[in-house]
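Hey,

Quick one before I head out. I ran the complex with 3,6-anhydro-alpha-L-galactopyranose overnight. Inputs first:
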Amino acid sequence: MKSIIRFLLLGLVLVHWGCTCDTHNPGKFDASIYSEQDFDQLGITNKEYLSAASKRALQWEDVGNEWFIEFEVFDLKGDLAYEEGIVRRDPSSVLKINGNYFVWYSRSTGPTQGFAGDIENEKVFPWDRCDIWYATSEDGLTWKEEKLAVPRGPKGAYDDRSVFTVEVMEWDGMYYLVYQTVKSPYNVRVKNQVGLAWSDSPYGPWTKSEKPILSPADNGIWKGDDDNRFNVEKKGDFDSHKLHDPCIIPYKGKFYLYYKGEQMGEEITFGGRQIRHGVAIADNPNGPYVKSPFNPISNSGHEICVWPYNGGIASLITTDGPEKNTIQWSPDGINFSIKSVIKGAPHAIGLNRSADIDAEPTEILRWGLTHKYMNNDYQYIRGFRSWRVTTHVAIGENSKSE
Ligand code: AAL
């Protein structure tokens, strides 16, 4: 009994000592490295009593508001507007070619039934049984659907079930479409790979890669034979299940293929779904693409939205993970840090690649395409615009400081 009491008392002393240490021991947090101006800007007047939040604020990277923006989305006119019976989603970047805008996108027909029924004949997702189509526009607002660009492959091919979520790159007189592929049957555990097609004209015809140009890591192990993606012996790399949303950027004499990874045994973390981005690098647009040893290069995100800026690469991180709704930038395409935290961003952005990207960090986001996310209905492509926000004022209030 005595020893139990002694043990409890010791515990109490240690807990008390730990508390005082945390709040009073300046050795743990060196406030002296921050200037009077740092404290004044954050509104902290008592350096002896720094809350955890104040310590974090002092440690934030010194960034201005150059990357902080707000968005609005709107319906488009013409063939990309809502249409009963047809799914159009995941728009690529928008290219301006001879005065006309071009976009490529996933297109499927008919309702989505999900995984509970006849997966051999039904549609499990809106992006199942898709082909890649394209549309053109003179002003970016009214669009005309042109025709099929890249169809699914013949039965037995790696892309026989669906080709979808496409991005486009123009390079050296050639056009490249990079997209997701699924081979039938589209069950819950099916692996998703990346395919590529190329042409010397945006109108096609397109030549498809005979094999996927990138595949999931193969170091995860499913548990049992049930078609259940949460039952795993071992999860494997962050991209052990699916590679999604591929986008190739020419960068520093090489080709950086950014993608979203989905892991076997995906979990819900304190920031939501466990989704991260990776990059694979090649010397030529057609590959071979080699995954960076630094992967994953984000801890959050969803659809890839990346652009070159100031010698580095910027990335809009949306939807999932603790760092969702941030714009990040890296000096090297690999090591990203947060430049702004925004209110919310449109899904699946197709960037306007003809923007003057050097004008300012987010110039490329002034307008572009997105889609209406609604899994139970026919999804359609929409437009978005964004603007910088530098002050918060009431009507008639003078926003200028001296
Ligand atoms: C999107 C993208 C990929 C997924 C599906 C269609 O948000 O991440 O493209 O496969 O959803």
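Residues 2-59 form one domain.

Talk tomorrow,
K.
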